[in-house]
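In this supplementary section we document a worked example of the pipeline. Step one takes a protein sequence of length 124 as its only input; no multiple sequence alignment statistics are reported here. Step two produces a three-dimensional model, which step three serialises into structure tokens for compact storage. The input and output of this example are shown verbatim.
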Amino acid sequence: QVLLVESGGGLVQAGGSLRLSCAASERTFSTYAMGWFRQAPGKEREFVTCISWSGDRTYYADSVKGRSTISRDNAKNTVYLQMNSLKPEDTAVYYCAAAPTSYSGTQEYEYDYWGQGTQVTVSS
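The serialised model returned by step three reads:
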């Protein structure tokens, strides 16, 4: 069982930045691919970005590409999502997820473990 705890969400003005963190309980964190998803009010949860277990491969949804960076620190069992140039449409609950594989993709079913989410609100 992998426990994931997100932090770093909050209220920010459009154009601002936030860095989300996701801390994992599992000491074998480095064997999990990690992803970030988000769910806006009234919408389905959607893929944001993912990173391989070594950190050498990443993939981004078009909606955040060029504005966001995913990274991980396996020594700290933590994955990060740096978001810049935030827009009101980025407002959502952001979830991190873990997949017991070297690299995972954009589909929710590929991830076995999920955090509780952290709220990001971008005001215009």
